[in-house]
Amino acid sequence: MNQERPNPYAAPTAQMPRPVASMSATGVGACPRCGSSATKKPTFTWWGGLLGPKLFSHTICSACGFGFNSKTGESNTGPIAIYFVVITVLIIGAYAVAGSR
Length: 101
Ligand SMILES: [Zn+2]
Hints:
Elements: E1 39-40, H1 51-55, E2 58-61, E3 67-69, H2 77-100
Zinc ion (ZN) binds at residues 31, 33-34, 36, 61, 63-64, 66.
């Protein structure tokens, strides 16, 4: 009986990789285009008002001005365009409904 018995209360040795720490991980929050970590999260944008930037985790690179999703690291240009079109249609629709009364 020279074999060590595993302690049932000890953490397993083969641990899952720790979840990526949102703040310290490299690449997360950094600009996918130029790699700069000088990014900012706008609370208000011309295309999305107050809601849009929150919806897309919109982050803007201070170095090159690239707008991207800080969760996916992908460009937000596509989602912004869709969002902008949807909002515009909704606003036009609301005006049309209001005007027809
Ligand atoms: Zn950049």
